[in-house]
Amino acid sequence: MVVQEFTVDLNKPLVFQVGHLEERYQEWVHQPIVSKEGPRFFGNDVLEFLTRTKWWAVPTIWLPVVCWLLVKSIRMDHTIQEVALLALFGVFIWTLVEYTLHRFLFHIETKTYWANTAHYLLHGCHHKHPMDSLRLVFPPTATAILCVLFWKLVAFFATPTTTPALFGGGLLGYVMYDCTHYYLHHGQPSKDPAKNLKRYHLNHHFRIQNKGFGITSSLWDYVFRTLPPSKTTGKNN
What we know:
mainly alpha; 11 helices; 60% helix; disordered C terminus; lipid metabolism; transmembrane helix; Fatty_acid_hydroxylase; metal-binding
């Protein structure tokens, strides 16, 4: 008996389909469909609503939290200059977190039903439908849950008075990341560095998806040698 391979039906909710691809999932998810209209994820309307986020929700919700955190450290007898330096360090640490998550978690290879399903929800959907504007930034509910975990991590290493400023800087870095990511997909920059950064990121989506993990910069790709080869180098080889 010949067993027919599972085929994803793009006209039906996708989330609980993709797991059935098993070993073929990685190949499928890295064949992008370029369309501004994203697919339906769930049959349930409430779950479907929770997967969609307007880009402006990120700065609207989280920038006031950043300001509150910075003021909190100032009220704990830190000078504005000290808080500014702590926040900048937090932004810098975020760039490493951004790179690490993107490379080692978002691009983890999966092949079982539930692992494929989880990966699709986390990042696979973005590679399959890179121009889906409502599933590009991270949903606020998920961000809030992660904030609790990252707060505890920062508090473990920092003092009670420096934790708010450091975490606030990291949160600011996240806001910059998500807004930059959205702009790289849907903006039309005409000048560098934004134009070059857009080219760099779209190269990650459409040419070589296991390189170029930095979104806001290529710093950590350079440090950890995951810079994508140039087209010229590829031709010479």
